[in-house]
From TrEMBL:
UniProt protein name: Anti-sigma factor antagonist
Record InterPro entries: Anti-sigma_ant, STAS_dom, STAS_dom_sf
PROSITE patterns linked to this entry: STAS
Family according to the record: Belongs to the anti-sigma-factor antagonist family.
Gene3D superfamilies from the UniProt entry: STAS domain
Ranges where the STAS domain occurs: 18-118
Organism encoding this protein: Streptomyces maoxianensis
Length: 139
């Protein structure tokens, strides 16, 4: 599913039963943070414990966006899952470093690296390949 807010684009792809990839582009700020929060909450609601955020097209993020990511990381850990941040732009990566988010939340160079790390945290009995790359449908 693709959603376009005022200055934020969010594309959700279901990678497997436990993992969703959210591609985020544009500006994540006070006007758009709620939209991202809703998309991530929807994924948790549908049983996905591992979220990979592709930040390669995210040009700007303020403290509202940072807060949404911190809350999502906490929610993921509460469900025995995790949040992975992939390919942040230099400005966004610097924000993670200044605030220390990079200490608590894995930051990866690309989506494939993030998916590989997420896959290592999935129990072996999980059937993760059954619904690879299905497009998310918001309820």
């Amino acid at each position: 599913m693709s959603s376009k807010g005022t200055n934020l684009n969010i594309e959700v792809v279901i990678h497997d039963t436990d993992t969703a990839i959210l591609t985020i582009g544009g500006e994540l700020d006070i006007d758009t943070a709620t939209s991202l929060h809703h998309h991530m909450a929807n994924q948790f609601l549908h049983g996905r414990r591992h979220l990979v955020l592709d930040l390669s097209d995210l040009q700007f993020m303020d403290s509202s966006g940072l807060n949404v990511l911190i809350k999502a990381g906490r929610e993921a850990r509460n469900t025995a899952g995790d949040l992975h941040l992939a390919a942040p732009t230099p400005a966004v990566r610097r924000l993670f470093e200044i605030t220390g988010l990079n200490v608590a939340t894995p930051i990866h160079n690309n989506v494939d690296e993030a998916l590989a790390t997420a896959a290592r945290s999935v129990p072996a009995t999980d059937s993760t390949a059954t619904s690879a790359h299905q497009t998310d449908e918001m309820s």
